[in-house]
Amino acid sequence: MLPDHLIVARMQQGDLIVDPPPAVERLQPASIDVTLGDSYRGFTGNHTTVTLDQIPDDLTVGLPVEDGILLQPGDFVLATTAEHFTIPADLCAFLHGRSTLGRLGITCHVTAGLIDPGYRGHITLEVSNVGPVTILLRVGDPIGQVTFEQLTEAAARPYGHPDVRSRYQDQDGAAGPRAVPGLVELADVIQIRGGA
Fold it and tell me: 174: which residues sit within 8 A by CB, 6+ positions away?
């Protein structure tokens, strides 16, 4: 994992790009703070069953951009970092929640914390309120931290390579889920029922 001075060195080198660059107070010992952007998506509730290879375009809808997002207990929205990232082929990055938000019951990513080598774009946040109180998250609030890890060598097929299913390259703002093409169809779907 890169410490603060090596994160700065890679940004000065110009292959690790964070735009806008983090202010000094956002540089942590082994990470940089990222802030909440102004793009949000919510689920429409139009569909009851979705498969990974057939995700409808209208599953999520853009939410009005105001000062931020009000999260009631149990709410889940897609949001974005204000920062746009370019990750070089010899680094990968990881999105982490912040301790204060965690102690309030706010997660900034449900599962998608890995940012692949070669990725370019804003980071979509999977924001959920699993706590007992309503929280207002405002545009510009610190929402997470990103760490960077050095690969032993550059990836041969970084994110965006034609042979890689890079469905979110160059995303601008919060991006909804996109179908996974080429999944093998199963002849039978097994349903697991309680007690069976």
Answer: 37, 39, 40, 41, 62, 78, 79, 80, 122, 124, 125
